[in-house]
Amino acid sequence: MHNLYPTPRRLYFLPIGGTAMAPLAGLLQACGHHVEGVDSGLYPPMSTLLAELGIPVRIGFDPALIPGDVDHVVIGNAVPRGNPEVAAVLERRLPFLSQAETVAHYVLSRGQRSLVVAGTHGKTTTSALLAFILEEAGGDPSYLIGGLPGWNRRGFRLGGGEHLVIEGDEYNSAFFDRGPKFLHYRPHLFVLGPVEHDHADLYPSLDAVLTAFRAGAQQVPLAGAVVVNGWSEHALAATRDATARIVTVGPAPGADLVLRAWRPTADGSAAVIGWRGVEHELRLPIAGEHNAQNAAVALAAALTVGVAETAALAALARFPGVARRMELRGERRGIAVVDDFAHHPTALGVTIAAVRQRWPGRRLVVAFEPRSLTAARRDFGAAYLEALAGADLVLVAAPFHAGRLAADEVLDRAALARELAVRGVTALMPEAGEDIVAVLLPELREGDVVLGCSSGSFDAFHSRLLEALEARS
Question: Which of residues 273, 290, 316 is at a domain's end?
Fold first, then answer.
């Protein structure tokens, strides 16, 4: 396997603590490069990951401390053009790359075939499922996942096999690299999950989202394939211009891989899958019909690159999950505290349904932080109502990015509370700056399951709630 950069390079990550940047830093360190970085602040699990890897991290931006002999500054999308270190990089004419460009320059240069997992929902879980299948089947894959898998709490692996599994985000890479990250990844396999309108700050319409995914599918060479989630009409529409082979996964008999007869089980779920005229039982130790669909898509991708059905299905039956995806953080005073990354209304709704399946019969309390700019928008109010109506008690924190929107564009939490009350759901809407743990704690009782959902740190909500429950008499 060749490498465009056989001599170690010095790489400076600006910033380093994000869910895409930290695993990439670790992977490049594993490739033999010297990696260091800066951030305004770190939080678990990425702070823990960087500490375990021994990657030097400086807290606080200071242009005077940028290494003078850096080979590339890796600039992420969490820093704007006005960041003082970004300004210094440009003024000093230091070489720089976006996060996605760095993957192309330093990782894809090793010659592995990239299996790119894209879509609005389920990318991290599906990437982890596919990587686990390949690893368990002896494929020695490399992978780069925007989360921490249960069997490898690092989110990356440098393998010597043929394939690189990489999560293909549709969000931009940097202020100077505004297209989807996955357009840099040169897919041999483009694995496309559900597609919806999301990231309204970048994509003004569903058509704009479809244009992005179509470009990804069109990149696949004739020798590759596009694996598509057939439950999503928009995902199917996004593959219409692809010239590579299309592998469909869905409930209909005409799909290449058919998933049917899904049912919940005591420890997860099960279903029947059909592949090339042969039926098998799929058993999955994680809850939720959406996860069964994610598993079916990952399975189809693995089978398409040559993994045997028996080996792939055996791996799925042992899949240990992913951090921050229905992750049980602990139980105190008979109250379970669960962490999930869900932030889009659809993801929030299916996660609530899956938690109901995993903990049947218990009162479900959902604490939700509208963390992303899209989640903060009033446009999604009706969709959040439908999702949150599946809970018994709801707390919606103040939108994190409310200050970046006009007052009439911000999610109307008061209206959301009124509509939830009509549906019999009690809703708490704390003001910005209020301690949401203090607001929620008096409402909790033994037997509750508290699902805390945010695409960010959520101010350490889960650990603080567990501590408060432990201290409560």
Answer: 316
